[in-house]
Every structure is written in C-alpha cells, then in structure tokens.
Amino acid sequence: MTHCFIRALLRQPVERTPVWMMRQAGRYLPEYREVRERAGSFMNLCTSPELACEVTLQPLERYRLDAAILFSDILTVPDAMGLGLEFVEGEGPRFRNPIRGATDIHRLGVPDPEAELAYVPAAVRLIKQHLGDRAPLIGFSGSPWTLATYMVEGGSSREFRKIKCLMYEEPALMHELLEKLADAVALYLNAQIAAGVDAVMVFDTWGGNLDAEHYLTFSLRYAERVLQQLRLTARGRIPAIFFTKGGGQWLEAMADAGYDALGLDWTTDIGSARQRVGDRVALQGNLDPVALYARPEVIRGEVRKILERYGTGSGHVFNLGHGVTPDIKPEHVGAMIDAVHEFSPAFHRI
Ligand code: CP3
C-alpha cells in the first residue's frame, strides 16, 4: 500500500492525516546538536553522507512522522556554482563571491549534480537504504527566485534592495539568471529523484516579498519551468510540492502551475484556501511555528482547529507554516504530532 503521505499529496483516500515538519532535523533536538558539534560545521554535516543520513533519521526515531526530509540546504546549489557558501555564527548564510553584475551572470555555469554536488545523491542513496519502507523521503531545492535573492544580496536580507533593483532595472539579466537557476534546480532535483527520493519540495521562501505582477513573472514562472523538467520514474512523475512563504494571495495562480500540492504559511486560513484551489492541488500546513512555544494543551487545540478548518476528506498534509525554531522544546513537537494522530482519523471516516 502506498504510504499515506504520498496518497494525501495525490488527494487519494487516507485513514488519517499525514504529518511532518519543516526543519524537523535541527537544533531543537539535542541529538542533532551532538552530531553538529562532532561535524564541526554545518557544511561538514551537509557534505558527509553518513552524518547527513544520521541526522535525517533522528526525528523519525523520536516521533511518529510520516516523511523524512533529506538533510541538506537550499544554498548548496549556488555554492556549487562557485559562490563560496559560509555560515557565520549568529548571522546566517553568506557568499564569498556574490553576483555583482552582468559578467558574473553570463559566466555562471549549471553545475553537474553528480560532480560538484555528488554528496547529495550519495546521501539520498544511504538514507533510502537505512529508511527502507518506514516512511517516504522528501528531496528538495530552493526556487530559482529564492536562490537568486541570496546570490545577489550575498546573504540574508531585509529589504532585497539589490535583487529588486536588478529586477526593475535589468529584467533581461534577471531572466538570464533565473533561467540558469531553473535548469540547475531541475538537474539537481532529477539527481535526487534518480537516487531514490519519493517526493520533492521547492522552497520559495522569498517569493512573498514581491508584488503580484513580479511574483508571477519572476518567481512562479520559473518554479513552473523546474516542474516541467522533472524526470519521470517508472510510475510517472513523483509528487511535487511548491511552497511560497507569504504566497496566500496567489493560490489560484499557484494551483495552475502543475504542482501536486501547495505549502501554506500560517497567515492563510486553510479552509478558505481549500475552497479557492478546489480539487486541483493538495495543501500542506499550516500551524504557526510560534504556537509550539505554548503549553501542550494549547498546541493540541490549535492542531484540532486546523484539521477542522480543512475539513473531511483527503488532500491535507499537516505541517508547520514555516520551519521549527531552534529553541522549541522537543516535547511540544511531540504534542503536535500526537494530536494529529489522535484527532485526524475522524476526518477520514465517511
Ligand atoms: O527541513 C529539514 O529538516 C531539512 C533540512 C533543511 C535545512 N535548510 C537545514 C538547515 C532545509 C529544507 C533547509 C532549507 C532552507 N535553507 C531554506 C528554505 C526553507 C525556509 O526555511 O524558508 C532557506 C531559506 C535556507 C537558507 C538557510 N540555511 C538559512 C537562512 C539558515 C539559518 C542560519 C542560522 O544559523 O540560523 C540555514 C542553515 C540551516 N539549514 C540550519 C539547518 C538545520 C541551521 C544551521 C546549523 O545547524 O548550524
């Protein structure tokens, strides 16, 4: 029997709502911090298939999760394009060689995932061996737009002044960069699919910072281009999820892009989102990650409300509306997951 996570993405009947959590392998887990310490740096952790495999499986040992997600980072792709990724303590990601102008964009190559990024498919193969059929494995990438923001800003940004100026003043150059990124992302996801992932997710963390017109042209169009290039397996295309943080206003357009499921952040009511997208896509989300600071009884109540808002029938994958924060108590995560297991079967008995 196909796992309920995959069936929910395809809107096929399930006996309960599947649940996983963005950033489920991370610093809120003491066992993650232990391996992270041993690795020395975050990039050492990402580039060692053995360590990446170990931390990918950690949250599944602790909780009743319905999917594992490959332990890696979206910024490995620009790193392989020669930008030189560093993680500065307390500051986040930074590139040694950010994109400064036209020449940098013309010069960018599309990396071969089996060469510069070989540690990623190697980690996927190892994780699949250890995971067996306990749960499906999700592969992922950043969206072309979100990767471009980091590459042009040189790191995290509040205003996105550099990338937006490039987009407003030099749209042709912006398109050239996004085309290369769409090809790089598709090749990268295809290498993960060939190595055995069961579903893929494209993270568009910064698409929600655009106005409606530019969102469609510079973010959504390139996410669509990625999807069109995904390779087919013996069973056809594997399920694909698209998540634009802050994209709640554009769900109808997103549902037309062809992805099987859309991720929702916590600012959109999942019940109205379901009405708007109809039977075109499944929905994944959308508990506010900050709700996990509240007492377990409160967390359980919030989980129940989301299940009620979505209503009966398949097509819902329970998740947070964004990644879990590093100082959440592991028991609070457990309360959320247990509540989904306890309350959700009632929404699938017809
Ligand atoms: O979800 C998972 O468990 C899989 C692993 C995963 C990580 N990053 C591990 C990570 C995934 C899916 C990502 C995606 C990612 N990375 C996104 C898109 C999703 C989102 O959160 O919006 C973005 C924007 C990034 C870029 C990035 N990487 C940032 C902004 C940071 C935070 C820097 C910091 O120090 O807080 C990272 C680092 C990172 N990626 C960590 C983890 C567990 C923490 C680093 C550490 O352990 O030291």
UniProtKB/TrEMBL annotation:
Transmembrane segments: none annotated. InterPro entries: UROD/MetE-like_sf, Uroporphyrinogen_deCO2ase_HemE, Uroporphyrinogen_deCOase. Gene3D superfamilies: 3.20.20.210. Keywords: Cytoplasm, Decarboxylase, Lyase, Porphyrin biosynthesis. The record marks 73 as: Transition state stabilizer. Pathway: Porphyrin-containing compound metabolism; protoporphyrin-IX biosynthesis; coproporphyrinogen-III from 5-aminolevulinate: step 4/4. Substrate binds at residues 23-27, 73, 150, 205, 322. It comes from the Bacteria. Its main location: cytoplasm. Residues 18-27, 138-154 form the Uroporphyrinogen decarboxylase (URO-D) domain. Catalyzes the decarboxylation of four acetate groups of uroporphyrinogen-III to yield coproporphyrinogen-III. PANTHER family: METHYLTETRAHYDROFOLATE:HOMOCYSTEINE METHYLTRANSFERASE RELATED, UROPORPHYRINOGEN DECARBOXYLASE. This is Uroporphyrinogen decarboxylase. The gene is hemE.
